[in-house]
Each structure stands twice: as C-alpha cells, then as structure tokens.
Design goal:
The chain is mainly α and 105 residues long. It contains 6 helices and 2 strands; from the N terminus they run H-E-E-H-H-H-H-H. It has a two-stranded antiparallel ribbon. Strand 1 and strand 2 form a beta hairpin. The protein is globular, with a radius of gyration of 18 Å. It starts with a helix and ends with a helix.
C-alpha cells in the first residue's frame, strides 16, 4: 500500500472556474469565462425579486406566485420551475429564464 500515491489519485482536479464570495451572503459565486455580467444581472434580479414576481407570473402563468417568491429569482431555481411546469428540456427552460432576466429592469 502506497498511501501517497493513492492520495494523489484521489485529489480533486483543479477547476478552471473562478470563485468569488457574494457580498451579501458570503456564498461563492461561480464565474464561468465571461459570465460576470450575467451573474451581476441575476444578483440584481434577486435583490428586487418581490417586485419582479408579477412580471414572472405573467410570463409563466402555470407557476404560482408563492413558488416564484420561493425561488428567490435565482436562475437555477427559475429554470427548474419552468422546466418541470412546462415539460421543457433544461436547455429550453434556461433560455426562457435568461431572456426573462435580460429583459427585467
């Protein structure tokens, strides 16, 4: 048994992503090659989500206002809701969510 070789094999590979802490939650934001503008826009939506729920509800009427509020306006949560409620692929649901976020003011 050669523990040092086994430990090297089990070590996690280096990620090609950059991680920063979210200023309000101290949770890490993962920034993927040039997506910092998308993350900033998503954070802005999250911060004013209660005022955006009405617009989201009119966009996706099969999702309740309570579910939308619970999602906190995060892209991942919205994508999952849209995907399941409208029986879409994850990719198609994510496209809809990205368009919605881009159009929010």
């Amino acid at each position: 048994m050669n523990n040092s070789k086994e430990q090297k094999k089990m070590a996690a590979p280096k990620a090609s992503q950059t991680s920063t802490a979210h200023p309000k939650t101290d949770k890490p934001n993962i920034l993927l090659d040039g997506d910092s503008a998308t993350i900033a826009k998503t954070d802005a939506i999250h911060n004013k989500w209660q005022s955006q729920v009405k617009a989201a509800k009119s966009n996706w009427n099969k999702i309740s206002a309570a579910e939308l509020l619970k999602s906190n306006g995060t892209e991942v949560n919205l994508t999952e809701l849209v995907q399941h409620r409208y029986a879409l692929s994850k990719n198609d649901a994510n496209k809809q969510v990205k368009i919605f976020i881009a159009n929010c003011h």
